[in-house]
Amino acid sequence: MKRHTTAAIAFAVTSTLTAVLAGCNAGTADAGGGEAKTIGLVRFSGSDVYANSALDAIAAYGKSKGWKITEVDANGSVDSANTALTNLATKGVDAIAISVFPTEALASGVASAQSAGIPVANWGGGLGSGVPIAADVSVGEPMAKRVVDDLGSEGALLALGYRPGLPCQRREKALDDAVKKTDIKLEAQQITIPGQVESADKATQAWAQAHPKGGKLAVWSCFDDPATGAVAALQQLGRSDVMTYGLNGTAEALSLVKAGKLTATEWIDGPSQGREIAKLMEKYWAAPKDFKPVEIDGDYKIIDKSNVDDFLADHPELRK
Q1: CA 174 to chain centre
Q2: Given a cut of 50, is residue 26 above it in pLDDT?
Q3: Is residue 310 part of a domain?
């Protein structure tokens, strides 16, 4: 399924700032020619497989166009992300793409890029001043509804969230909204990054031991990595009575769905969003003054035991 709406949000930017941005980029030629572009990629975490797949797609597109790629791993630290943005701005790259961190938490780094006339694209972190390109990767409502429906609006639910990341913030809100009008007893735990699999394993073991067999039970994770930790914990405890859910549709999660160990994941086409971000960078370079800020949507699909084989046949790149 695809969410068809593409949000174009206009920000108030003074004519003076627009002129500065245009002037600063004037020496790097347009999107179709001139000297090679240099793109800075700031990865949320080297261990975040799904987020990295989107930035990998930007890099692959850029390399096909002859762009130079400079990469930095923020290792889940917003301070490191701001430092990386500032350093890349100092190096004079032509554009920067970052993942997951909320734009509002990147004020200092984005300001450095903005003052240097460098556009920042945020995959998953939202638009903002100095960030004219973004991708919404939350898409939390469909899976939230699936969890509530599978539980029959009752039972106990463990939610494994990660508040520093905007996608997880939005997904957790969607789950909260879906659960609030039900009789489901929701317990939320925050996982850590790095260490998302291990922290999810630990949290799930503690929760499962406090919820013995009987009644409807489920564990929801705001992305697939902690879901794999939850599955491992339940296997260690010999618990097959607890439903488990993730989001993103990574190869690891899909293999667990196929094996009947993960109830469902929600695939979101991050790589296609990455390629679209790269194309929007070209559009920005061609006419900075005319560029309207845009947050793109993407394809998504809930994958469970009933459709995983067909899905993997259509997406062999996600076979593990």
Answers
A1: 15
A2: no
A3: no
